[in-house]
Request: fold
Amino acid sequence: VKGAKNVTFWFSRAVTTDNTVGSTTFRVETSRDGTNWDRFNKLISNVTNTNAQTLTRVGEVMISLATSTTVVTMDNMDAFGYVRCIAVEATTGEHSCSATASY
Reply:
């Protein structure tokens, strides 16, 4: 993602027919060299706010008890060359993370 203006992530969780409970926590890690990784705590969350408020930034997103997709973005890539998505499952389900980058 080096040189990207922003990156948008889609975190999705689907419950399975045998399990309608549980949660998945998603986070993004960044690296300058592809070897040393750090948690990215400035994901811009798609929460409702007023025009007077600033953007809400988060370090992780949890999806619980449902089939759902959440969108977050990264602006000002801080010269990172690499990103990866981490999904931590609390109970069985199907999880996915996809991303697009704008240059």
About this structure: The longest strand covers residues 6-14.
